[in-house]
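Subgroup meeting minutes
Present: P.N., E.W., G.H.
Scribe: E.W.

1. P.N. recapped why we're keeping a running log of single-chain structure predictions: easier to compare across weeks, and new members can see raw inputs and outputs side by side.
2. G.H. added today's entry (471 aa).
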Amino acid sequence: MKCSRCVFAPLSLALTTVTITNAQALPLSLHPENPHYFLWRGKPTVLITAGEHYGAVLNLDFDYLTYLKELHSRKLNLTRTFPGAYVEPPTAFKIAGNTLAPAPGRFICPWARSSEPDYANGGNKFDLTKWDEAYFKRLKDFMLQAAKRGVVVELNFFTPFYEEKIWELSPLNRRNNINAVGNIARTNAYTLQRNGGLLLYQEAMVRKLVTELNAFDNLYYELCNEPYFGGVMLDWQNHMADIVVETEKPLPNKHLISWNVANGSKLVSEPHPGISIFNFHYASPPKTVALNYGFNKVIGLNETGFRGTNDTPYRVEAWEFILAGGGLYNHLDFSFSVGHERGDFVYPENQPGGGNAGFRRQLGVLRDFINGFDLVKMKPDPSFIKSVPETLSAYCLAEPGRQYAAYFFCGTNAFPKSFSLTLKLPEGNYHAEWIDVVSGKISSRQRFKSAGEVAITSPDCGGEIALRLRR
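Output recorded in log:
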């Protein structure tokens, strides 16, 4: 079989880079002093957001500029997007107003349409040997508008085809392309040996995206969303990581690569050497942070949901995950939809997750709180709390003897109006601030002296509260 580089030589010659007048010198990277966090535009960075359901670019009816302005106004700095190898029907996962389900004829992706009719969701079929320059123009404008507003983009190349009705819409499906490839079971699409001729086109798409977007600093790549479903093979994922690394080798910028490891908690095993971010879904409580902290990479929670539409579960998991040492949190916010790009869509009660303007403000409180510390000098460390009421869970970051951050939550109705803590602190004078995690207001300020151990009492609180403590 010919190598992909030979098959796609004409396409490779057609690859173009983009000049961005306000591009930063260096893209998002791991912080050299503490690689559990990012370094971006010269500052330690934690990525925190509540974002739309990944269709901002591929759905032509979605006004991404209004959406990005909303993220920026709430102090949120991340969004995920899918390029278009995967797209959903309106009925998928019972998501009302699903941005990943464009209306008929309103889907755009890296591949150009052919002259042959009958794509499954309207319009002509795709030619996998030709690029759609209108798509790349839209994608690069999305990247540029995000960059101007301090928003990092996770570009997720691929996603497993969970159901037949989803596979039926993919340009990689034989029925939707004119290239006689993809006549396979949906669970074979992301394999090296059983892919029905798709591998060459998958490689070419990754190379094209990586080359076109190289100039952007507000970017990292995720190889595949939820690869633990639908037959996605590990050797295929590692091959795609190799493609990213190989493609960027002669290019000016090198971008981080994310591996979506698991739903919930799992110890990472045999990661590809090019991986810098370990992302998890539905990881609450955040045991996965402690399990994988020793890898000295960013550990992220980049999808939430399926815990109802109330704010509380998602606010708790955000605070727990970041205060456990995580460096990235993305809440899947279903209040963003076509015509509701400000995030004001009123979804039904059976929506598989939540999201609203009030919750986005609450995530801004978390981002302000965490940015108030010299973060790269901190690590997970609850040892300064000698005793805490049994009804409370506590998640803590500390630079011993200098700065401490803690979040307290009780999952029962027995949460006291206030509670007492016994702290083990080096001798010295300390300043404590108790933060209301919903409003962001300082509930109480306290000054005290420690001779090695000291008791303090919280203000009245309604089930959860954060503590900022400095020597």
